[in-house]
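Backbones bend. To wit:
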Amino acid sequence: MDRKKVTFLVASDRRGVVRRYVVSSAWLKTLSLFGIIIAVVGLAAFIDYIGLLAQSIENKRLRAENRQLRSQFEVVESKLANLEGGLERVKSFATKLELITGTDDENRTVKLALGPQPQATDNIEAFNEPMEERGPASFIGKEDSVFFEKAPLDVAVGELANEEHKDYASLSVRIEKAVKDTALREQGVLQLWESLSSRQSLLRSTPSMKPAMGWITSRFGYRMSPFSGKAALHQGVDIASAPGTPVYAPADGVVSYAGYDQGYGKLVSIDHGYGVVTRYGHNSQLFVVVGQKVKRGDVITATGSTGRSTGTHLHYEVRVNGLPVDPLNYILTE
């Protein structure tokens, strides 16, 4: 048995007292071992703390970088959304030009007649909704609200802009699609321009602008009459506006009618040639006469509520070869 002992002498400077401590070597070794273990654990904890501190600093840097990247991602996404919106407007504009000028079909001059259409042999008046059976503008607007419901997202054709979950992958797909669409649209517009360059007279005579400021309360198309319960064709669009709002000619033409009609009130018709005629009803004043030539942008009437009308508005029609078509497809300014 190890009986070695270690003696510690502790002297006090004040009292001159010397204290004597005797510790066995076994206890001393044990204490030394514990001291080494504590030192190692402490050193390991200190190193781990330094590592955690460095990791915390790195995490803060990564979070800041992530916020910056997310902000940049949102900026890019916003710009891409604007680009996609611009491409859609250009596409819509070019499509309307192709339709109303017939540049997509060399065998026809004007072929715009979207939606269900009467045949040439049909009695057009039989499809008309009598003016006295038309409800107020607010009621008609409510009835037409079914046409404004949001369409479901069609991912199959690349409608990714409206997805709730957006990430880098979807953004990449959208960018690639936008680049391709831009190239295709550029080529299409150049071809359209070349085709239209030789059709200046047709362009000047083709309605292409909204004839009056205001909001559309009733659209073109077949619908169930709220009074007769039968299908009736609303042959134009109704544009609600303040009394006396100027009405502008949407294209060059010759005034073919300017007078009073029992249903339409004060009515003006303009023959634009190429089989296209526009009509403007319920006016308060007429500023043109039959036979007068008008240019696009000329003031022809002022809105009112004459004839069978429930409120101040402009009833605007476009007819191609005698058949009513949707006037909204002849408005390129919206």
Observations:
- The mean pLDDT is 76.
- DSSP finds four helices and 14 strands in the chain.
